[in-house]
Design goal:
Blueprint lengths: L2 H12 L14 H8 L3 H4 L20 H56 L11 H25 L5 H5 L59 H5 L9
This protein binds a DNA duplex (16 and 16 nucleotides) through helix 4.
InterPro entries: bHLH_dom (IPR011598), bHLH_transcription_factors (IPR050359), HLH_DNA-bd_sf (IPR036638)
Protein name: Neurogenin-1
Pfam families: HLH (PF00010)
DNA sequence: TAGGCCATCTGGTCCT
DNA sequence: AGGACCAGATGGCCTA
């Protein structure tokens, strides 16, 4: 049990007769009594009013010590009801706060996904990519951009295009080699020599990234024509 | 109507 | 102790 809760509960135990403002919304003493009092049929008629120290004897059927025990039990029962209500309320308020944080966290995640979508090539049909499509597309897009740089390096003398275009710290961030191809042969043989499907470093070589020609995610505006013609890396994955 | 996608809630676990 | 993160459950909405 959390310490703060224990503190609250111990406070409760020490003030069984008060209706603290901290407990507003919980059971009042009257409500506790109404809930905890046994039904009249079970306990019989209420005990007759007892006399004080005036010398008149109290009711002989209920000894004073026994009545004190009953009162103590009632007080303990009321305290337990209040403490359970308080525990439930504290748990509830913490859960509500946790739900709020979780909702906010997911909103932030969705905002990041939207930002990612905004920098990916868009398509005429303007269909919004799903989350998984966005991630897969981004992965493949990065790979394709890296391939463009690699091809540019091959055609440009006097230094690496990648080094000219990318800050050094970005180069190690490029996608690493995904898992080996499982169905690369199914994409024909004409482009196989230069296709990412035959390139073990291509995302398309992974069955998790099975995009390809004919799918809107297949082509990238702005990428080299040569690469686009040889990059069947965006096959519909479903 | 079934299936996919999504938002939200929830409890558990890890981290600071 | 409290927050972040994660995964499972659930229900709503949309589409083929």
């Amino acid at each position: 049990m959390p310490a703060s809760l224990e503190t609250c509960l111990s406070d409760l135990e020490c003030s069984t007769s008060s209706s603290s403002s901290d407990l507003s919304g919980f059971l009042t003493d009257e409500e506790d009594c109404a809930r905890l009092q046994p039904p009249a049929s079970a306990s019989g008629p209420p005990a007759p009013p007892r006399r004080g120290v005036s010398g008149v004897p109290v009711a002989p059927d209920v000894p004073v010590a026994q009545e004190d025990d009953q009162e103590k039990r009632r007080r303990r029962g009321r305290a337990r009801v209040r403490s359970e209500a308080l525990m439930h309320s504290l748990r509830r308020s913490r859960r509500v706060k946790a739900n709020d944080r979780e909702r906010n966290r997911m909103h932030n995640l969705n905002a990041a996904l939207d930002a990612l979508r905004s920098v990916l090539p868009s398509f005429p049909d303007d269909t919004k990519l799903t989350k998984i499509e966005t991630l897969r597309f981004a992965y493949n897009y990065i790979w394709a951009l890296a391939e463009t740089l690699r091809l540019a390096d091959q055609g440009l003398p006097g230094g690496s295009a990648r080094e000219r275009l990318l800050p050094p710290q970005c180069v190690p961030c490029l996608p690493g080699p995904p898992s080996p191809a499982s169905d690369a042969e199914s994409w024909g043989s004409s482009a196989a020599a230069t296709s990412p499907l035959s390139d073990p470093s291509s995302p398309a070589a992974s069955e998790d990234f099975a995009y390809g020609p004919g799918d809107p995610l297949f082509s990238f505006p702005g990428l080299s024509k040569d690469l686009l013609h040889t990059t069947p890396c965006f096959v519909p994955y479903h």
